[in-house]
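User: Quick one: structure for sequence A, then sequence B.

Assistant: Sequence A:
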Amino acid sequence: MKEILTLQAVLSDLDRVATHRAYNRAPNFFGCAVSLALLAVIVCLFFESLMPLFLFLPGVACFTVLFVREVRCNRAAKAALKGALKRENISISVEEFSHMSEETIVEPHGNGRHAHMTKEVRFCYFTSGGSWRVPTGDRLYSWSKTHNLSIRGLENISLQGDAFFYVSLQGYPDICYAYPCKFFALDEVLRASHPQSTIE
């Protein structure tokens, strides 16, 4: 039996994606900028010269700009999510599942005392060419009473050609979530706002 997908459930999932992005990317860009700055100071002290400083300045500046941009983007995304409760800026389409794969992406992050520049993440691909970065950590659809799944569980139940509701925050294509149509159906509010998504 299908579970009803509500706007509140969608916003809850999108908020978790936005929060994960905010706590994952921005602090790591800041950490990289600070680490490079400290390394520059140590090298300058070691050589008793300011010349090495100019080798590190582009990297520090680059990570600082990335940090500021991420903070602004995260704030704007959070504001848009809050606004979605009143002025639905949620985009919904129906996509055909192609496959899932694990990929290595460049994303600075910390793991205990160690810092890494790359990360292994899973992507869900659709025949349209679109993709969804499957969130790691907590189970998917944790609000669901009957269909909360692990990443492996989602992969096991997904067959090529299956239909998925693909939901994204307008203006922020990387803040998105996908729901297998075999398990979920849109409620009246989402159907009325997005009549093109008619799969039941």
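Sequence B:
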Amino acid sequence: MNQKRVSQVVLIGLVAALALTGCGKKDSGLNTNPGDASVFTDAAAPTVTTGFGAPLDLGKELTITFQENAVFTPGKFASNYQKGMVANKFNITVENKSGKELDLASMAISMKSGTDTCVDILDGDNNINGAPTEPLAAGASATFTYGVGCIAKVGGPLELGVSLGSEVVGVSGTLK
């Protein structure tokens, strides 16, 4: 009787283990699908376009500037970066001259280099931490650094789609 009970427990455990092995998925650690943010930016054509380096007035008392991009070397613990990628960083400055706060955490950025894959890079060693998570107060401005890595060549195009509020900003430049 006891042996029958042990056999049942072992069989149930084996069935459960086999069932759970199908739940996992392979994770290479690299976000090779740049479409995550493009859901928010590529669905609509850019409402305005700009290049790197010039302030862009979005109306509604909101100005955004994408500083000229520059090459950088990602740190040891940088996310999404793989050796061989072209890594660029740039500062984004948002000026909120309106009378209400602005949620910068809802900003979505998609990127590509022609038909080549690009991903965002977060790198605390280089102070590249993404958009601020705190709302931008009325009358305030914020500057933060954004990193991008492309499986492309230096001199290739760098195209961003940035969703901020109801605006979709197209930014064009060149990988450094």
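DSSP finds two helices and ten strands in the chain. The first strand starts at residue 48 and ends at 51.

User: Thanks, that's what I needed.
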